Amino acid sequence: MALGALVCWGSWSVTLVLATSKAEGMPFQLYYSNFTMSFLVTGFLVGLLGGSLGSGGEHYDFHTPFLEEISGTGHPVECYIWGMLGGVVWNLANILLCKGISMMGNAIGFPLCVGLGMVTGAIVAYVQDPKSELTFLVPGVIVALMGICTVGFLSYRKEREVEFRRQGSGTSGSDESSEAESGETSGNAESGPDQIDVEVPAKAVPAPGLMRKLVVCILGGLLLGFSNIGVGKATSKPCLLSPYANQFHFSVGVFISSLVVLPIITSFPIEGGESSQIARVFRGYRHVERRQHLLAILGGFILCMGFFFFNLGNKSMNLTVSYCIGQSAPLVGILWGTFFFKEFAGTSEKVWGLVPVVCILFAGAIILIAAAG
Q1: Are 48 and 66 in contact (CB under 8 A)?
Q2: What is the mean pLDDT of residues 194-206?
Q3: How confident is the model at residue 172 (pLDDT cuts 50, 70, 90)?
Q4: Alpha-carbon distance values, 179 to 140, 197, 217, 230 (Å)
Q5: How far is residue 288's CA from residue 293's CA, in Å, rounded to a whole number?
Q6: Is the sign of the CA dihedral 200, 201, 203, 208 positive or negative?
Q7: Can you give the pLDDT at residue 87?
Q8: Residue 2, Cβ neighbours under 10 Å: how many?
Q9: What are the residue ranges spanned by the domains of the chain?
Q10: Count of CB atoms within 10 A of residue 111's CB?
């Protein structure tokens, strides 16, 4: 179950990159609306099937059918609130993660944010459920932290090389560069009269700096770990929500918070640039290709399934170990970014040489943390 969470949590971001990248990509707000709707529906349907069929739950004192459990009988109201609060905090973290991926790429933004979330979440989970063997858990978290630091250094080296190449191409004397310097173009060599100025404003918007990118990823990682507080409270005594009921209320928290957060980040873009109105963005919903809608729906399904695996795994292991193994998803994310999206194509051996180091560190963290269980 924990390894299933690892694969799902490390793979869902691929749908984000495929659906929103390039000029014809769908706006993030449209992607995330489909994503959260799919997350909610998956949380209900999988919870209904898993919480109503089969056996085995009685070994963990789960005897109440799913529909009866989520109706509010058998548990105090605050138990359901804890489950939804975990979803709200996690959703804020996930939106920052998505923005971090869009600014830094899947191979860097994903492991930086999620890796920090693993360290924070491990501490939070252990405080709530101190059953792990510290002899292995502490070294595992330290190795994961080393992996995060290596990702940060990898980001720094990549940014420097990209900036160096950009400056080199800017001094080539081409017509496009001259026009960009004189302010006669939008700053994009490929922009033409048919390009929508909402996507690339006439006034060149400076790209977000490295410090903004790091702050977004770090803040997202911290919130990601703190979301474990809600999950831990909902699934431990005296609440003891089943994995299915907990995930359903978690999904409700994700959906409700998205209704509030999406208009805010549209008016105040996290990555910088001009603000817009959510109604204006949603007017283009019908013009998005079906493939992109399906990718967003697939992303919500994959990620919600990862949470079901995590919730089921922490019953037979414990909250800390199951969470840490799943949150070692940067290992999967950096493999997607490196070999599928080719995010390091054209970089030097000094950058490429750090990629296997990151993979080894996170793989070592997974082994040590698993031994802690």
Answers
A1: yes
A2: 44
A3: very low
A4: 53, 17, 35, 54
A5: 7
A6: negative
A7: 95
A8: 24
A9: 2-51+69-166+207-371
A10: 35
Tens of pLDDT, residue by residue over 100-133, are: 877 877 667 767 777 788 778 878 878 877 877 8
Q: Are 150 and 190 in contact (CB under 8 A)?
A: no
**Which pLDDT does position 170 carry in this prediction?**
61
Interatomic CA distance for residues 43 and 300, integer angstroms = 10
Quick: pLDDT tens for 321-360: 887 777 777 778 778 877 877 777 778 888 888 888 888 9
3-state SS of 56-84? Answer: CHHHHCCCCCHHHHHCCCCCCHHHHHHHH
Rounded to the nearest integer, the mean pLDDT of the chain is 81
Question: Which segment, 212-216, 294-298, 308-312, is predicted with the most confidence on average?
Answer: 294-298
End-to-end Cα spacing for the chain: 14
Task: Say if residue 27 is preceded by a cis peptide, omega within 30 of 0.
Answer: no
The alpha carbon of 99 is separated from its chain's Cα centroid by a whole number of angstroms, namely: 9
What is the sign, positive or negative, of the torsion defined by CA atoms of 225, 227, 229, 232? negative
Residue type, 83: G
Distance CA 225, CA 119 (A): 7
Q: Which of 3-12, 127-136, 171-180, 335-344 has the lowest mean pLDDT?
A: 171-180
Helices (H), the chain: 2-11, 13-20, 28-50, 66-70, 77-104, 109-128, 134-170, 175-182, 210-235, 243-267, 278-282, 290-316, 319-326, 330-335, 349-352, 354-371
